[in-house]
Amino acid sequence: MRTVGKLPRHRPLSRTQSSPLPQSPQALQQLVMQQQHQQFLEKQKQQQLQAVLADGYVSGPGVVYDTFMLKHQCMCGNTHVHPEHAGRIQSIWSRLQETGLLSKCERIRGRKATLDEIQTVHSEYHTLLYGTSPLNRQKLDSKKLLGPISQKMYAMLPCGGIGVDSDTVWNEMHSSSAVRMAVGCLVELAFKVAAGELKNGFAIIRPPGHHAEESTAMGFCFFNSVAITAKLLQQKLNVGKVLIVDWDIHHGNGTQQAFYNDPSVLYISLHRYDNGNFFPGSGAPEEVGGGPGVGYNVNVAWTGGVDPPIGDVEYLTAFRTVVMPIAHEFSPDVVLVSAGFDAVEGHLSPLGGYSVTARCFGHLTRQLMTLAGGRVVLALEGGHDLTAICDASEACVSALLSVELQPLDEAVLQQKPNINAVATLEKVIEIQSKHWSCVQRFAAGLGRSLREAQAGETEEAETVSAMALLSVGAEQAQAAAAREHSPR
Ligand code: Q9C
Ligand code: ZN
């Protein structure tokens, strides 16, 4: 008896032409199966290659999350006083797990952003102030630290904790890790999407970032994750044009500031403005960018309060007439979304007041996926109603997965945008048509329902093709006449 170990080893995948065919039927059968398997593998490889060539990626959406971000909590521990709490991202993570959506996505490992990465947007002082803890602060070059950093900046809060203000709390032990993790998670995810390793992405991160300016923490925000990511994509991956869409109900003053003079990053924000009476007060429609960046800052600054309320119809109309036409004309290489969900129903003034449905955000996501070859990365910003932010996250991840979405109600499609929204959009179009000629054609039909707009566009398309036919007919007639009159 020969032992298994001494059996001659097959070369399973190839035979030389001169080698004799096996004698026994069993051996022949085995060879046929080997060849079939080989063909199967080849075919599979071909198909994968085709997918890469066609779409530029193999896998689906990526999701990033890390428990380090949970530790940013006020010392007082009261989540009613501090609505931007750890439960927000825990709940979203659980929701994606429970619904089975998470298992359809790639899970990306996060990391803490480096101090250098953060300084692409923030000053050195600001970066050290919020990017270090007492423990790792000692390790840094002492010359870089401008005095006793921890003592002078913070305020004592009525709740007993410390922070920049009662929104923007600080935990000396844990917050620096959390805020750097939020940035690093988004950077990791966006780099994989931009490099074609992932189709698109959703970053479940906190604290939010879009209010953070070069040297100012405010509105729950310390480091501007989206702005830092846009800068790094350009500097490290040679990405050319980045579109940032910000649909958090608050204006992203920090993001606007970071790219105000920069024509390579188009910032489009939809926010409650009320003539500067809603936090943070910036984001007027006249703020269109500066210097070479003129025209690359677009503020859809809703004004007129909440009676009548702003909801799906108004957001969908803004996308139809302003956001998508400008975005297509800009033709970005990557789209980053400051995806706050505080415009979703369930958020009351002063932290909200609008009644956009969670479902609507899925539809907005799907529209953005028509840009940049689908390279869209959503980053959580604001929103504190747990049901609302979980529902909206679920809708957006469903869109990123390209699964069929819950359709919008027919009532939404038939409703006309409210009078204040029409006025807001008229103003934006008037201002931005100097920079984006594509928006001009929407000025006249702003009051239409989406159904009416659809019919109008079909009619327009039909008119265009009818005219094309007519002109072809006219050319043919002309050609025929020319033949008739030409001498033989
Ligand atoms: N007294 C985000 O949604 N509240 N931040 C200001 C003024 C600020 C919201 C209250 C709310 C900030 C990311
Ligand atoms: Zn917000």
Automatic annotation (TrEMBL):
Its EC number is 3.5.1.98. It is found in: Nucleus. Keywords: Chromatin regulator, Hydrolase, Metal-binding, Nucleus, Repressor, Transcription, Transcription regulation, Zinc. GO terms for cellular component: histone deacetylase complex. It is an enzyme of class 3 (hydrolase). GO terms for biological process: epigenetic regulation of gene expression. This is histone deacetylase. The lineage of its organism: Eukaryota, Metazoa, Chordata, Craniata, Vertebrata.
